[in-house]
Amino acid sequence: MLDNYLGRHTKSGLINGIPMEPYGTGAEIRYRLPIATLGIIAINVVIYVITSISNGLISINTKWLYTGGFIPILLLQDISNVYRIFTSMFLHADILHIFFNMYFLYIFGKAIENTIGSVRFLILYLISGIAATVFHTAFSMLQGPSALAIPAIGASGAISGVLGAYLILYPGTSLTACWFFFIFPMCFTMNAAYYLLFWFALQVIYGYARLGASIAFFAHAGGFVAGIAVLPVVVDKARHYIIKMRSVTGSIFDFIIYGTRRYFSGLPRTAKMILALLIASLLIGAAYVSLDVMTRKPTGIYVAKADIEIPSLNMKYTDNVVLKIEKGIINPTDIPADETRILFNRLVGANLLLNTELAGKEITIRNKELTVKICNVRVPFMVKEFRGVYNKEGMLINGEGSIVTRVAEVTYVGGKCYARLGSWIDYVFRINVPTKTYITEGIGLTSLIALITSLSALYVSLRMDKELVIVG
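-> structure tokens emitted (472 positions)
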């Protein structure tokens, strides 16, 4: 569940190990039919079929990715894009992405739904999904503005909230998981608290280490803490009490050996300390982002919407590119998609993306041969046709045309950059760059929500775990 799709979107993922027992071996609880869990799975499967049928059900059609994926910068530009928060939860990149997401949802979802009820489960699920997009937006500032333009899809943020709720309710259960060492399966059993904490720690560590720019680690972490924070609000106290008592009396042998301490002791002390430290790190991160945007001048960035066709590769897609101007220079190296980065590099090399001499002008270019220096080589390309309109700052606001260029294959040896010329590639493109988007206010709001959510989750973990635990 942790992959990227052509390098142009973020999809959420959960745990590499596959849990085999939803309640583990420490809980005696009768199941009810998990209507909400099965309903969510059915909706996701139907939507996946619709959005991937044109690709043989192997992967999502990029049209749906950019229509329904959550792209933070678009929400910061226009509040009407709020619908993407919900549509992105039901889109998946490929068949493995949806398989593992739905598997984890079924394994953990039916346990939580059975505990808090179907309606309350839906509320927890949706709130966790919303919180995931909030954390993804706020913490994108730690990865650089370019992260704001990467589409995020997948149900993992919402499912992470289910995992957070499971950690608080059933930390003492034993989960059996299977991992693959090359092609050989390796199965083991471990305490649910440490199983889930290990995963949560990976999300936080990888997020701060900026590993895997195409993976929404902070969205996973945000959904997880939201599930913890919202659990006391959505739990049905009467139902919770009945299930808790049933767990105590479900196994006479366990009751004789462990007494009520096993069931009412809350999170293990070590697990509680680890969880508190991880949540505190998110709290500090949200506070840092909030303070940073409050004390800096309003930050304005350009966001280019590029409709790109590459006939030689039989590719056609839409991409969003964040353009920061620093000292009159645009640096497009932070663009995740290789194909998009090549195009924008050539436009920068031709002085067609930002050029103060073209301020307020409209130009047309045909059959212009140029070169751009990449590492140690000059890369040739030709602007076959280009029409552009520029604003008063010399920024391209509308442009369309076609170019053909050699690809530069770049390698790094001893910290030095080397390049050699590769094959030719041709582009047909249309670029629209609206006015500057000021992101400070929006980022400040999302970071504040992330801070409050983290603080609430910390309180629940430290002060309410004994009250909420069913199997400790």
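DSSP finds 16 helices and 14 strands in the chain.
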